[in-house]
Specification:
The chain has helices spanning about 5-15, 45-50, 65-75, 80-95, 190-205, 210-220, 225-245, 255-275, 280-305, 310-340, 345-370; strands at about 25-35, 40-45, 100, 105, 110-115, 125-135, 140-145, 150-160, 165-170, 180. It is of the alpha+beta class. It folds into 2 domains: about 25-185, no CATH class; about 200-370, no CATH class. The strands form 2 sheets. It has a 6-stranded mixed sheet with strand order 5-6-2-1-8-9, with helices on one face. Strands 4-3-7-10 form a 4-stranded antiparallel sheet, with no helix packed on it. The longest helix has 27 residues, at about 310-340. The radius of gyration is 23 Å and the shape is globular.
Length: about 375
Amino acid sequence: MRWMPVFLFASLLGLLEPAIAHTIRPAVASVAIEGSGEIGIEIRTNVEAMLASIGAEHTDTNESPNAESYNELRSMPSDQLAVAFVEFLPDLLKLPILLADGKPLSLTYVGIDVPAVGDTELARDSTIVLRTNIGPGAAELSWAWPATYGSSVVRFSLDDADEIQSQWLQAGEVSDALILGAEFSPPSRLDIALNYLAIGFEHIVPKGLDHILFVIGIFLLSTHLKPLLLQVTAFTVAHTITLGLSIYGIISAPASIVEPLIALSIAYVGIENCLSAQLKPWRIALVFLFGLLHGMGFAGVLSEIGLPRSEFVTALITFNVGVELGQLAVIAACFLLVGWCRSRDWYRKVVVIPVSLLIALTGLYWTWERTLGS
């Protein structure tokens, strides 16, 4: 019975194995409807994953049987990748991507912008440019990014004006219909708040694998509520600061630096949990510093998805609230798993040490993978 908590935690860590260095980010589509009925579509996405047929069921590209092909494509010069995409293009164009009154529109290929090869440990996002014509009499327009290619963010605009409707969609989900011919108005503040609240929460549970491990590491060493709350508060304040500063463009750091440091912060917390049975005075300060790093990681997500210009502050705040709710959900889950045994004499030996070792090893592996791994 004593070993049941650590078995449960070990099972959880097994589910958290994939590192975010190889996760497939959502495609971001900008759909501009012109007064003539012409529609311009720009899709920013990971073309290499599409060409390698790595489906949304793989949270880590390395888990796919096509991982070798994907890694080769990441090293391919931009002009060669563009040619490879054109050969693949007919497969994409035959899919129902943009719907008018529920029926797929015929799409015309305009071109693709493929960035030059950079850090091959980081996915590069290419921009696919398409056009179509909605035709007379259509009442509504919907976005339907194929489930095979994962989640997506769609932004509708009229005559290149400000965004009039945006939505973050799970794999295979069809967007809310954009009603044509009606007086366009931006989404309400409540709609934006609920949308970004959900995005923030999901970035922690289930997608924030490294952030989850860091929160678990904080939980394990704090056998009393007050020091746990102090650490969580320090972490919250810190990542709120850097998230805001990063989004406003005041500070910035490349993901190639931030992501390995986040992994090191996870390893440090796990190692310190094993070496010290008591919360040291400097732990809260270190948690604060690590929170600054994690905030820049959160900013990377928002940079990919974007923030509506009409309600920038609302979206930023509710995203952060969603992140906090996700962290609290992780802590609540920890209490449900081991809260009943935190006062037992064997808690540290049976739960804290084994689980912290797993956290430390995972953090070290992610550090290696994000710096030297292939």
